[in-house]
Amino acid sequence: MSVQVVNRVRVISDRSGHNARTVGDGRWVVSYLPGRTVSLEQAVAAVQFAEFVSEAAEFARLIGLTTREAVYYALADPLWRTETPGVARRRR
User: Fold this and answer.
1) 71 contacts: CB under 8 Å, gap ≥ 6
2) Which pLDDT does position 91 carry in this prediction?
3) Who has greater pLDDT, 20 or 2?
4) Which secondary-structure segment (H or E) carries 12?
5) Per-residue pLDDT averaged across 73-87, rounded?
């Protein structure tokens, strides 16, 4: 991932078309967050997230899912649990 702050006015990515720009007073807008202003730290995180999602889209495509489907399923609780060899499971 390569996210850069350019001339303190723009946050760009070499892996995603999404970017951010300053609107003054330390506030930033992000290309995929219309109507919302964020801090520079949040703008950088948002552009990094856009890069992450574009990479996730490639994995989703490889397993035959849309990006949204893959994220939904990956965030869901697992259907079954597996024991890790050599790791004792705590009982409640």
Assistant:
1) 56, 60
2) 61
3) 20
4) strand 10-13
5) 83
Query: Residue 90 pLDDT > 70, yes or no?
Result: no
Higher pLDDT, 48 or 1: 48
Q: How far apart are the first and last CA of the chain?
A: 41
Cβ-count burial of 35 within 10 angstroms (0-12 exposed, 13-18 middle, 19+ buried)? exposed
For tokens 């597996």, the residue is: 82
Q: Are 28 and 21 in contact (CB under 8 A)?
A: yes
Residue 6's φ and ψ, nearest 5 degrees, are: -105, 120
Element (H, E) at 68: helix 67-75
Which contiguous run of DSSP H or E holds residue 20? strand 20-24
